[in-house]
Amino acid sequence: MPSLFIDAERLRNINSGLGQLCLHLGRELVGTRPAGRPEGPWKVTFLVPKGRAGFFGPSADHIEASWPRRLWIPGRYDVWHCLHQDSVYLPARSKLMLTIYDLNFLERADYSAAKKARRLARLQRKINRASLLTAGSAHTASVVRTHLRVPDALPFKVVYTGVAVREQDAPPDAPAFLADHERPFFLFIGAIHPRKNVHTLLPLLEAFPAHRLVLAGPDHHAYARQVRDQARRTGVTDRLLMPGAVDEAAKSWLYAHCEAFVFPSLSEGFGLPLVEAMVFGKPVFASNLTSLPEIGGPDVYYFENFEPGSMVRMVREGLDDFRRNPERRERLKKWVARYRWASVAAEYWKLYEELATVKGP
User: Fold this and answer.
1) Which of 187, 204, 240, 247 to pair with 61, CA 20 to 30 A apart?
2) How far apart are CA 80 and CA 96, in angstroms?
3) Residue span of the structural domain in which 35 resides
4) What residues have CB less than 8 Å from 178, skipping those under 6 apart?
5) Same structural domain for residues 314 and 173?
6) What is the pLDDT of residues 16-50, one digit of tens each?
């Protein structure tokens, strides 16, 4: 019976992007494991946070993460899949499949050249141990090849992320923080971090005086305070809502009821919130940087630059175009149908099967 180890330790923050990845991919892998092999179906073991044993049901094994587990995890597996490049849990002998979602740290102004070099060196050591690499987008694969050494003989595949939100699952009631929810609002979802560039959205409140702006996501970085300070200086504080991280129900309601989704991020390995907004058929305005045009496709409106007048004009003209061309909504929903967890799991199972047949550790 072939064996698969999945590092799902990031379930410890289940509402984060990586937490949702572990949740939905893990469930799909368990439910779709191949059963037609002569030696029997795959045995699947998950590394999970403390208190999550049994999370993926009785048909899978579970090992709880801990400091000692960073040094040693019992058993030998045919395939060991690290679902993200920053994992500290690595196999001693199993074939390593490493997924790289982004190298966004290379764009961080607060990281010194030495710190970036150290992170690249750590990732290079993992690549050197890997038997197969996957990237979350073609853009990420290109960046990896530019900054790291990927041997020609090392398989390197692009596997997109799935999307789990569904339009019909949006709850009827607005989140508690959104009083007077009949007023129109623009929506951003993601960490409030300089890389997300959300301060460039505040001029929209000056140009659209009837609208509010919801910036939903973890707001512990000092940048969040800078955004609030800018809102005070420009007199739009009463229409800027920053509720912090929101749960899945609140997120779905926000997608369903926003007038538009705005995503001026400077660097993304995939950009899941953009895809989630497309599920709801909303007009999406995003930067034209890194992976976003690849992931968003032709019916997203892309900011040409972040000059306030240009951004306001893009949103104003885009909203008008979206109202006049209802077929754009249907094209968005058709495009996003390619990001299904069932398809992602099927693609990974194919890679696991191929890797398990390769000789060697």
Assistant:
1) 247
2) 5
3) 3-162+340-356
4) 185, 214, 241, 254
5) yes
6) 888 999 999 999 999 988 865 655 689 999 999 99
